[in-house]
## 1
Amino acid sequence: QKEVEQNSGPLSVPEGAIASLNCTYSDRVSQSFFWYRQYSGKSPELIMSIYSNGDKEDGRFTAQLNKASQYVSLLIRDSQPSDSATYLCAVGGNAGKSTFGDGTTLTVKP
Amino acid sequence: GAVVSQHPSWVICKSGTSVKIECRSLDFQATTMFWYRQFPKQSLMLMATSNEGSKATYEQGVEKDKFLINHASLTLSTLTVTSAHPEDSSFYICSARDPLRGNYEQYFGPGTRLTVT
């Protein structure tokens, strides 16, 4: 079992829909969780961080964390074609390192 | 804030030569930087953790004598790929943590695309 698992995708949604990206992790003591967006040929960009159970909203993005279920998700409302990218889930660990999932590729169709 | 730069953005070198990649934190001091490698359509692979003033910590399977890391100041870490071969061709990305933020957020540089001919 991988330490951080994401739906392999690809995920395709129509423009204006809600895109839901999921991630599970294996280390029960993890305390910090991140979502990065990576456009093709570019480096990752941090879009959300979450540390407490519940929801955290930032514009069209909502991160949800459930530590009991070891589950973190990212919702993108009113999806736009510019949201088409690979989304990486990361879990913070020892020595400041983060463990990354393999990513889910999202395509938003106009 | 939290801007990280890399230089060069791309480089082509001949097999057997060495290439140095620089990673700089522009508006914060980074005691810890990370070096990743990413092959096309694959996930990020952590190569090593670079700590200012001390030796880097390499991930299992990464040759420390081939990938030399130096973190001589709080704003600069360098990765030198020694005796490069075509299989070293990849996208090399650094990231840095801002210790003043007190969390594990990593800020990535734009990456360096290395092609070894």
Note: The longest strand of chain B covers residues 90-97.
## 2
Amino acid sequence: AQTVTQSQPEMSVQEAETVTLSCTYDTSESDYYLFWYKQPPSRQMILVIRQEAYKQQNATENRFSVNFQKAAKSFSLKISDSQLGDAAMYFCAYRSGGGSEKLVFGKGMKLTVNP
Amino acid sequence: ETGVTQSPTHLIKTRGQQVTLRCSSQSGHNTVSWYQQALGQGPQFIFQYYREEENGRGNFPPRFSGLQFPNYSSELNVNALELDDSALYLCASSRTSGVYNEQFFGPGTRLTVL
């Protein structure tokens, strides 16, 4: 079974600074996807960024980028130029490449952005 | 385009009762997944429905059951409620087409079991 681990329950960052959220996962599969989701206090889960395991290039979406280390099974999220609106719970998630679209989530990390 | 909606927003039940939660998928989506998110935890996969058939199930007992309707909306039913069933229940819809398709989440239903 696949597992996702987020070892930092909380982090804080100053507005405009950069913060990195860490995630490790365990799988024996070679074809999979990794995700970072954001869940603001309003509760609706929003996809931040996606990484396909077969791609060597790290995904980027504007201020958000990942550091995908496949051999180490590590998948960290870097948020640059942090904004107050980035404050939320962040979840790392795993999905197998085929069949079910089941997502396996980590426990999440609460990010606070200080003005 | 209407996003994923869920009803009700909040619900309070007592132990032993039954509950039905509803999810309307995003337009054009044919797959609905349900997740249970206990307080302070990440969501856990309950099951998924694709074209009205269950297409994958997580580690949840049979008293958790579901339905998907021809319009691809879905229901989650929980029988014999237990205190540990108190959680935020999320549904997510996607358009399964053989390649990666993003799941879009609803706002959730907060269930409290007393």
Note: Chain B is about 0% helix and 50% strand.
